[in-house]
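Q: What residues go here?
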């Protein structure tokens, strides 16, 4: 009887943790989707490519998420020259939610 009592709370905690993780994944996917739309709406594809989409003036971003963290990408989007003074990318006028969305999208590209 004592054994069953220990199994039920562990199982319940597992179900709760799974539900929270699923909600976090869904929120991250929504933010990445907003970032994907911003990539097109803000004209990022005018200089960058992602797979077949875009113009190859700047770096190909198809696998940028495998190289850089979301936090780094946020810093880059806020001020590219602060990250690399020789960067050719201009400083963009993006809001913090736009930066978060673009960084979530770019970091998902592995």
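A:
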């Amino acid at each position: 009887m004592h054994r069953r009592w220990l199994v039920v709370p562990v199982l319940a905690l597992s179900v709760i943790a799974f539900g929270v993780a699923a909600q976090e994944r869904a929120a991250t996917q929504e933010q990445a989707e907003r970032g994907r739309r911003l990539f097109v709406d803000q004209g990022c594809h005018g200089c960058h490519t992602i797979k077949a989409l875009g113009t190859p003036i700047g770096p190909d971003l198809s696998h940028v998420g495998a190289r850089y963290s979301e936090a780094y990408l946020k810093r880059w989007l806020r001020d590219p020259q602060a990250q690399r003074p020789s960067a050719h990318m201009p400083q963009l006028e993006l809001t913090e939610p736009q930066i978060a969305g673009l960084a979530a999208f770019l970091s998902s590209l592995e």
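A: Context that may help when evaluating the design: The first strand starts at residue 49 and ends at 50. The beta strands are 49-50, 53-54.
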